[in-house]
Amino acid sequence: MKYDVIIIGAGPGGIFSAYELSKTVPTMKIAIFEEGKELEKRKCPIDGEKIKNCVRCESCSIMSGFGGAGAFSDGKYNITNDFGGTLHEHIGKKKALELMRYVDDINIKFGGEGTRLYSTAGSKFKKICIQNKLDLLDASVRHLGTDVNFVVLQNLYSELKDKIDFYFNTPVRDVEIRNGKYEVICDDKTFECDKCVVSVGRSGSKWIESVCRSLGIETKSNRVDIGVRVELPAVVFSHLTEELYESKIVYRTEKFEDRVRTFCMNPHGIVVNENTNGIVTVNGHSYEDKERQTENTNFALLVSKHFSEPFSDSNGYGESIARLSNLLGGGVLLQRFGDLVRGRRSNDKRIEENTVIPTLSATPGDLSLVLPKRILDGIIEMIYALDKIAPGTANDDTLLYGVEVKFYNMEVSVDENLETKFSGLYMIGDGSGITHSLSHASASGVYVAREIAKKR
Is the pTM for the entire model greater than 0.85? Predict the structure, then answer.
């Protein structure tokens, strides 16, 4: 089987790359390979009743399948160069923002009309944060919601399915170069292409590292983000979420001068499990449909750890912490903030009596037995700092789920076209280590598609 372009991964980078190619060069023969399922068949078995915890499916439907790990996220597309990756360092700040706005237009066209674009520009909270040693980052954010995001993906798939060959449940084992062509090797077949776009997302970090090693493509150590997911009454953050929806707030700790940041804020949302390479971590979702909303808001507090020589396995470090949490709790651990600061583990009785009702079934425990002291101290400091701008954050009944880990790929060496040292082999999306968000990953897909079209 021969194709003009093969895209590995049906996450946002792969989808938008395919969309742009099918639009600009409709005669191209294109295929997308995805280890997960079609969108309609993606379903996590956890129902909260019969199955309450992760059963470690062979392919996690939360992390893999059409739409990638972002399919069941709350569909936040941040239009900014201040966070979400370093795409602008390769293609320029102006071009990066232009492409993110283009992606936003497509999302609106395919079902996102009527959703709101929030912005921190001119917000009074910028001053309030500065007065309390916090930094509110600048961004515009389109909130689709998990439900509308699903509709947008459905419509994009309907647009692409008759123009592109999709191979679902088909993990790619390796990529080789032979006679100037790329061979994409699966379990029972090998496919050939002139151009290959690798867009495997965060869950493909180990795979892409092995491909780069076998092809001799240079990579450099990236970071890992480790922390907890906070859940509290929605009214505590309502003054922020109603105006900004997602507030990206950074705090520099007094004790170690580490940077702690809020991430993935979900007003009236739910906390969920994630399964990455067999390791169960925690994340959050929220819905645009008010009938599916809860009384709680959740967000992550993350500390970024960068490593220098001789240690370079940042993901391995994060995995070891997550595995320890899984060992102690059989999955995700849950602790009241009041129990944490008093140095005692939470138990079933304290969780049952808690005024904040958890939206995820997790094992009550002690996060201090899992998270390194330096990271935990920073998170506690941050909670008290947030309490100054959102009183109630540091209440005893605030819930902390652990651990939340954001794995990043080793950053792959690419040029200004996101092309490796091999002509026609591109690395995009979160798997490349260059992007860390839906909007940046999608924009990188559009950018590479246009570069391929130019060379057609």
Answer: no
